[in-house]
Amino acid sequence: MQLDPHIEDLIIAYLSGNISDEDNQMLKAWLSKDPANRTILRRCREIWMTTQAEHQATNYDWKAGFEKFCLRKEQQQQQTRSQRNYRLAKLLRYAALLVFAVSVAAVICYRQGSQSWKGQLADVEMNVPMGSTLSLRLPDGTQVSLNGGSTLSYPQSFGLKDRKVNLTGEAYFAIVHHTDQPIEILTSKMTVRDIGTKLNITNYPEDNQAKVVIDEGSVELKTGNDTQTSIIVAGQEAIIDKQSGRISIVSKQYDGNAWSKGELIFHNTTVADIAKRLERTYNIDISIHHPATANKRFYGTFSTREQSYTDILQALKETGTLKYTIRGRHIDIY
Q1: How far apart are CA 142 and CA 97, in angstroms?
Q2: Contact 154, 168 (CB under 8 A)
Q3: What is the dihedral of CA 31, 140, 107, 38, to 10 degrees?
Q4: Backbone angles phi, psi at 254, to 5 degrees
Q5: Which of 30, 39, 165, 25 is nearest to 98 (CA)?
Q6: pTM for the whole thing?
Q7: Band of the pLDDT at 58, cuts 50, 70, 90?
């Protein structure tokens, strides 16, 4: 099925920031009809974002730009032919044609001054259920791993004027660094600003504390309405009291991405915190019936790929400090 030329015009207007309210509603209606339509828009936007830096150059080489466009188009065609996916091949050809038109519009747009179109379409949002993990790549190439019970969202304008994402839960970031456009990770009562980083952030709504672990690079950390920032560097972790906003900086105990590699590491960890991590990792429900038991602390390293939650509970039980019973996916700890 051939793409309607009017839809091409709507996409070009949207990406160039010149779309009217009426046309924007028409574009939304088209996107809602078929997931393939959203794929077309996403591919056009991603390719446009990767080329916009070139468009900002004062002396833009149109001949070289057109040759680069042709090369990309040929590479896409070769890839789709080898995969023998004719439907996708059509979508990519439409996207390639749109990119060239958008490239022209983008140059004009930047000469006139870029316009913000943030919020015209819904944010991109990923929700990870308990017992699952998700790995994804942001439009700028930043790699993100999301833990169970986590949500990550970012606007479709990500990377144009700024790079901001919203996080609830736990995520590991391997950030592609841009000096003139640092990434900002916004989470409840806390903002983390990249200075070139691999880091893990844990901030579930039900937890009293949040944690930032730095494996590489450094970040600026700001809590609440504070104007001052704390600098956290590689080899350190920050523990944030969410009620007071107080930040404690200590040496990290283990790599921030241990969980994403299938490891559960307990370092002087309370049974209450262990229970929360088991719930998120294995999608189970745990009740602790005695406060004294909840405050007991343990050390240990377990493999979630080789050991079940019953293996971990049994290891804790064998210390002689707690007991448990299992009813389906509900566990009672005494």
Answers
A1: 27
A2: no
A3: -10
A4: -165, 165
A5: 39
A6: 0.64
A7: very low
